[in-house]
Please model this.
Amino acid sequence: MGQNVVVQPTIYCGACEACKAGSENVCYNGGFIGLSGGGGGLSESIVVPEGAVLNLPSNIPLDVGALVEPLSVAWHAVSAAPITPDSVVMILGGGPIGLAIVQCLVAVGTRKIIVSEISGLRQRFAREFGAHHVVCPKTYDIVQMGRVLSNSDGPDVVFDCAGVPASLTTACTAVRARGTVVNVAIWEKEVPFNPNLLVFREAIYTAVLGYQRQDFQAVIDLLAAGKSRNWPDSRYMHSC
Model:
């Protein structure tokens, strides 16, 4: 049996200004293998550029290796936020990427992780993955709960992984003064947005897309070192 590997499926030109700046994830001519071209995602076999391949250490089984890609999305998002060990962080949406962000926050030792999620199954996964508080937005006022659970005027960082108009408003309303909102979700259509939600807090709104090679390598290194508890196997993500 050969070397187990994972593939970073980013397609990028290497010639545009984004690529020259080392930001291949936002290449102006970019895409993803299996989505934008270069072979279908359900193919029995596929040829990829050598530079897209990263070796899996022997102590990472293939079912966990299959999750390096979504975990890299989460790691890229977490790396874009000003998170310290003392941070209080809220995640809106407990789907696969939201759960992956929980795991990455656990890996870096985040003091308090709050997840807002409607689904009971995803709520359970969030708790198992390491969230300190899991709140249902149908039952509780998420903004008020953020203040109570942070013992402050709100979380330091809010990750919007839901990508619906209500979550955008909640994220910008819940974050503390001069806190940071990180948009992780991909939006299907335009939504109304009032910038004053951020202006009156002097809060920062930033966005992330996909991942870079260093994100893949960081996730692989963390998995190999066992730096997080309860790293999910593929069954968890499929159940979501």
Remarks:
- Confidence is low (pLDDT under 50) at residues 233-240.
- The longest helix spans residues 213-225.
- The chain is about 35% helix and 15% strand.
- The longest strand covers residues 88-92.
